[in-house]
Design brief:
With 465 residues, the chain is of the alpha+beta class. The chain has 2 domains: 332 residues, 2-Layer Sandwich (BirA Bifunctional Protein, domain 2), CATH 3.30.930.10; 96 residues, Rossmann fold, CATH 3.40.50.800. It is built from 17 helices and 16 strands. The strands form 3 sheets. An 8-stranded mixed sheet has the order 1-5-6-11-10-9-7-8. The radius of gyration is 27 Å and the shape is elongated.
Amino acid sequence: MSLVQPRTLPGALELLPREQIAFQRLLDTIRATYERFGFLPVETPVMELAEVLLTKEGGETERQVYFAQSTGDREAGRAPELALRFDLTVPLARYVAQYEHQLAFPFRRYQIQRVYRGERAQRGRFREFYQCDIDIVGKDALPVRYDAELPAVIHHLFTGLGFAGFRIEINNRKLLRGFLAALGIEDGERQKLVLREVDKLDKRGADWLRETLAGQFGVDAPTVDRLLAFVGSRSESYGHAGELLDGLAAAHDHPLLQQGVAELREVLARLADFGVPDSHVRLNFAIARGLDYYTGTVYETVLTDHPEIGSVCSGGRYEDLASHYTKSRLPGVGLSIGATRLFWQLRELGLFRDSESTVQVLIALLDEAQLPEALRLATALREAGINVEAQLEPGKLKNQLKYADRAGIRFVAIPGPDELARGVVAVKDLARQSQFEVAPAELARALEVEIAQARVMPPAGGDAG
């Protein structure tokens, strides 16, 4: 029988255990931050009915959908009724519409689950990946002040992840749409297409945008110049955005633009109240977000020390979340983090390293006669809340220490024959290359202290995740 070559399908991120621990800690930090801001967990099935899923407008996501079909349906030639979710927004819309009368509004939900897209097989693009979303959904109305809370969540999260250099770029699509209308690019399909191209400005540059607008959309040179001057506007911080908005409001009287300016003023005025530092938010008129789904405030977050990564967190305001599923008006605001891509990129840059194991202590076994005592020690440590692996086969100490080091287990407890004869257990800290002895009855308390100190003061050059 020929062997099948073991391999991972392209576009899936598969990690070794210590890498997986680092990734899990990223997800845990995101989850803890969302919960700290009062968001509630939701999970939806990985598959949705195709007619329910394929309703979202804007972008090319629907062309990348994976359909799910039973063998029987396929053999009978029936069209697939199910599809794998390609984001978490459409399932949220279905969820809110379905349970509308059982939910408390504004409904604050977070969702951390895998999604699936038929991406082209290339480095750094994933077909299966984690998205980490939060949304605040209102019933009939949702005041714009809620839009100011999401930058506070982003700031708290990326500070907690240890990033000093990050910036939240903020804009309002009404402002952009009003400006385009004032230029003669009226609301409609042409304006939507132009907005999608404007959103690519920071990635592709002004020359590319100029050629695209002139060549594909027939925008004349003076209009392109005015648009480029507009979308090139930035504020160094949100505290300095007032003058920029004042000048814009004075120069253009289009009602939609004026509404966008007013909404931005309110959001920016609330940021300090939410504890967002002035330097971490910048007004950027080029931020549009590619989906027509967004109607007002929009955000993108970049790591200023690593701009090559691009946006690491994005989102915005929408006016009618579930119009395909209910006649109720459900406006909201939300953001999403593509955690798999973020982790992969940070690991490629060396900013995420393998984590220590979730196993905190290894109980070594040097002699078969010590097995009962080793297992009693392991049980006592587990009852004290410590994660323990006990060696069940005796072996040389150097081999067991090598195993612990390779597995990322920092502490090794050694109840060897000599130690037990003296009424002690030896404990080796592999990170600091130090060792101490303690009575078996005091082992749990001593390790609790050591583990707590290790969290506060990791050794220089030790693994971090």
